[in-house]
Known about the structure:
Shape: elongated
Distance between the termini: 44 Å
Helix content: 40-55%
Largest sheet: 5 strands, antiparallel
Strand content: 5-15%
Number of strands: 5
Radius of gyration: 24 Å
Amino acid sequence: SKMADMPEWVSGVLSGLSLSKSRIEAGTKDILDHEGEWPMLIPSLLKHAIKIPQPIDRLPVLYLLDHSLKVLHKQKRHGLRQALSKHVAALIGLMAPDGVASVSKVKKVVEGWKSRGIFDELTINVAQSQAGVKLKELQDELDASRKTTDQNAAFPTKAVALYDLERGQNGELQLRTGTTYTITSKIDENWYSGQDDSGNQGIVPVNYVKIVSGQSSQQQQQEEHQQQQQQQ
């Protein structure tokens, strides 16, 4: 699921989040009820926001945090502010990639933080100077996770062992030449994760097996197309 890496209550808050006041207030109540999870909450919100293509559509996340900070500031509870302080630059980058001055709604929120003393001027200035770098880091993380998802899209698949391999101390799966195994995922360029018909699991060297099925139909079409072109 697209929000598998975040707590269920956070997914619940985000799935219904909009700029409507009632939604923001309901989300704030949820946040206030989960004080122990605030350090985990902020990265989850940022990961959610980076998946939204248009910065203007990410604003509900900013408004939710802003509203929660204001309520907690009045209550003299500073945990959320502390959890967010490390991520202010990323948040600003997400909401206003071309700088705070370029988005009046973001500028208004940031000015409010300074005037209320939620964040001081220095914190905001440093965050603004690092916003571009932090935004790129988030984007790179997203690209990497998508790449991993794409890599594993063709799994599970079947593979035939080209060589014998004894079960090793590093968790290698025992292979017998000519036997078919199930490859469940690709770990990196050198290793698969797989299992035999008895359900024994282990790691498999990429060059010890030949994949025999499970190529995505797109790959097959591309290869067939190339073959046709060569024959012409």
